[in-house]
Amino acid sequence: MKKIGGFVYPWGNGHFTRMMHLDKTIQDEMRDDVEMHYTSSGEIYQKLLQKFPQNKDRIHDIEMPTPIDGKKGPSITLSSLNFLLPISGRPPLLSVVTNYLRKEGKLYNNQKFDLVINDGDVGSNAIAQRRNIKCIFITNQFRPKLWASRFYLYPGVVYVSKNIEKATKIVVADSPPPYTICEYNLNFPDRLKEKVAYVGHFSNSGIVHSKPKSDTERLIENVDNFGYWMITGNKSTKKITLENYKTAFHSSEMTSERRIISHASADPSLDKVLGKDGKTYTISEAVEKKIDWIQIDIGFLSEQEKDTVLNLCKYAVINGSHTAMGEILGGKAKPIIGIPVYDEHTNQIKWAQDKNLGILSTTVKQTVKAVSLIHDDYNKYQENLSEFSRNYNTDGTKNTVKIISEMLGN
After folding, report:
1. Number of CB atoms found within 10 A of residue 376's CB
2. Which domain of life is it from (predicted)?
3. What is the pLDDT of residues 15-61, one digit of tens each?
4. Predicted TM-score (pTM) of this structure
5. In the Cβ-directed half-sphere of 169, how many Cα atoms lie within 13 Å?
6. Is 54 domain-assigned?
């Protein structure tokens, strides 16, 4: 029985989601051969405990260094001050980094891992290298191009890239070129290219619609023209995003534009329907009265509901996260309007725009114009999306498990 350590960076949900997709394939194909351990902190640690209630002794809580939330993504100022000073109830980042590396090193010593898989946790790469333990690093960026935050973040980018280099194998969770969504976020030097593998996206298998249709699904099933507007990120980012959406919806060009707004928050009080008559209804009322709606607000969509929305919507408005772009552009062949939060998002949306798969928007005015452009040139987007979707590789977890098997075998 081989022992594998999975180290999941706790900033956002993307690393956790990707690792859980991989875990499912590992359990399907290697269950009897490996013992999985996972390490993270904060909310992600709690999610791991919920995911594996029978194996809590294999879930390890080690605080990892993360930025401090700002009004839109991480606060550069507060995060910089936090390097040496306690800020917002957090100890100095320098002490967090020291403790985190010491505790991870101790975990390595105690568990005697045969292989480690790191998603976002670059410090674990360095620990594995020092102990001569084989290591896989899963990523969708390496020395990404920086835009607005170039001067502040460049030293951090260099530090992260140097630690990524220490992995035995670098797994890019994306399709091989020229269909790589994160292409503009990857700047590998020639010396690393032999250890880099483009394995494909770590995507969900197709959603099986096994449950009866919900009221939300019934409300949209006969509507053929609406947009799916997603709100994601930290609390401050969600607030700003919603304010920008509301401003866009009040413009004259958007008065008849149907939209579904997903708030990514398990709060039923957010669920409501705005009819074209200007009145507000509950979702069940809107279904019962067959309301001609203009806007649906949903706190949280189930996987089945989300799949139905993506199947029926004409376009999606997103922040440019790698996972969401893959699901929408590749899985559903729908154009996107991307409103970035991070430089990583900007690069990915810019790539999609250059391939005529979507539009980059940084202002409310541009967002409103983008909706019109997608309607006007929809056939152009559909043609390009059709080609991209045919080449959208969803075998990321299977190909990674092959790499894991080979590395354990060697």
Report:
1. 9
2. Archaea
3. 999 999 999 999 999 988 999 999 999 999 999 999 999 999 999 99
4. 0.90
5. 23
6. yes
